[in-house]
Write a structure and sequence with these properties.
- With 407 residues, the protein is an alpha/beta fold.
- Among the domains are: 133 residues, HUPs (Rossmann fold), CATH 3.40.50.620; 138 residues, Argininosuccinate synthetase, chain A, domain 2, CATH 3.90.1260.
- Helix content is 41%, strand content 19%.
- The chain is built from 13 helices and 14 strands.
- The strands form three sheets. Strands 3-2-1-4-5 form a five-stranded parallel β-sheet, with helices on both faces.
- Helix 3 links the parallel strand 2 and strand 3.
- The longest helix is centred in the C-terminal third of the chain and has 20 residues.
- The chain is elongated.
- It starts with a helix and ends with a helix.
């Protein structure tokens, strides 16, 4: 055992209770000779997290953290991200990316609480999550030691993992029935699918892969309408019923999924350099994106809205690449949140066979839409159309000069 490993007395492991993290738990004890603290978070993945306690106890773990973080996740991470209308590479709503800074934060906090020397995660050396976890951890605890087993061990196949589990008497749950061929990650914002036939970018995803939504073809023939109430850029009520952030997203997922909303199939550019094909279900987030842009269209000044759109791709890359805890993201968030003070009102959306349309928007206090000016009818002198002539000529001046030079 190296000196580096002997210096680690206690490590906090992000623990799901599944095969990989159960093996990591034992591997940490054997390779580092350290005590392990487990941390399991409920961020809306749709699976019971309490069984992880029994598994950890069965493996002799004394300090076990199991936490319901759904409200914090939506309130402090998802909602702030959606205030910016954040989309990565034109399509991806960043469902996996936005969960990682919260998990990194809790890993560091638990390490501080328990006096641990290190944190550990089960992300592979090929993906983005290792970057997100570790950039977050270093930003919050600069001297933390990070153990990433997939970058150290030689258990690089399912067969080797199973052999390790058998050799070390690690309990493995075998789900009866057909096992999903996909690698999946879920939280309250989305569920992702990778691997299997999706590794061929030409192959269409099988319809029975999707878990949260019906296919648009099978969605109801009658449209569903929702009224979403906004306060400072966040949804606070649906159809007049006040809800917490997590309740809002849960309900939008339910209604959106029932109407075939939120399926996405993309090839994305990972931060580590490779292209990766993935499928995502984000029904609630898809509705939120459409509705938020609708209420902003009514309440934001033109140049503020355009500036937000210009900066959004940079903001999206920060989140995708793992820089949530960076000073530049914090600075940009302050600007975004300032812009949302007037984003108040109600949006009516229409859901129909996979589509989301904003069909109404109103704001009693912050609307910048002036019907007396915008009307095609007699505006009673509110707007002098003759003023447009000088406006056009001044803006055409440079074009006319350039055209004269060409002649």
């Amino acid at each position: 055992m190296s000196a580096r490993k002997t210096n680690i007395k206690k490590a906090v492991l992000a623990y799901s209770g599944g095969l990989d993290t159960s093996i990591i738990l034992k591997w940490l004890e054997d390779e580092y000779g350290c005590e392990v603290v487990t941390f399991t978070a409920d961020i809306g993945q749709g699976e019971e997290v309490e069984p992880a306690r029994a598994k950890a106890q069965a493996m002799g773990i004394k300090e076990i953290y199991i936490e319901d973080l759904r409200e914090e996740f939506v309130r402090d991470y998802v909602f702030p991200m959606f205030r910016a209308n954040t989309i990565y590479e034109g399509e991806y709503l960043l469902g996996t990316s936005i969960a990682r800074p919260l998990i990194a934060k809790r890993l560091v906090e638990i390490a501080n609480e328990t006096g641990a020397d290190a944190i550990s995660h089960g992300a592979t050396g090929k993906g983005n999550d290792q970057v997100r976890f570790e950039l977050g951890a270093y930003a919050l605890k600069p001297n933390v030691h990070v153990i990433a087993p997939w970058r150290e061990w030689d258990l690089n196949s399912r067969e080797k993992l199973m052999d390790y589990a058998k050799t070390h008497n690690i309990p493995v749950d075998f789900n009866k029935g057909k096992k999903s061929p996909y690698s999946m990650d879920a939280n309250l914002l989305h569920i992702s699918y990778e691997g299997g036939i999706l590794e061929d970018p030409w192959a269409e995803a099988e319809d029975d892969m999707w878990r949260w939504s019906v296919s648009p073809e099978q969605a109801p023939d009658k449209a569903t309408y929702l009224e979403l109430t906004y306060q400072q850029g966040d949804i606070v009520a649906i159809d007049g019923k006040t809800m917490t952030p997590a309740e809002v997203l849960t309900e939008l997922n339910r209604v959106g999924g029932a109407n075939g909303v939120g399926r996405l199939d993309i090839v994305e550019n990972r931060y580590v350099g490779m292209k990766s094909r993935g499928c995502y279900e984000t029904p609630g987030g898809t509705i939120m994106m459409k509705a938020h842009r609708a209420i902003e269209s009514l309440t934001l000044d033109r140049e503020v809205a355009h500036l937000k759109d210009e900066l959004m791709p940079r903001y999206a890359s920060m989140i995708y690449n793992g820089y949530w805890w960076s000073p530049e993201r914090t600075m940009m968030q302050a600007m975004i949140d300032e812009s949302q003070k007037t984003v108040n009102g109600v949006v009516r959306v229409k859901l129909y066979k996979g589509g989301v349309s904003a069909v109404g928007r109103k704001s009693a206090t912050d609307s910048l839409f002036d019907e007396s000016i915008a009307t095609f009818e007699d505006d009673a002198g509110a707007y002098n159309q003759k003023d447009a002539e000088g406006f056009i000529k001044l803006n055409a001046l440079r074009l006319k000069i350039q055209a004269s030079r060409r002649k």
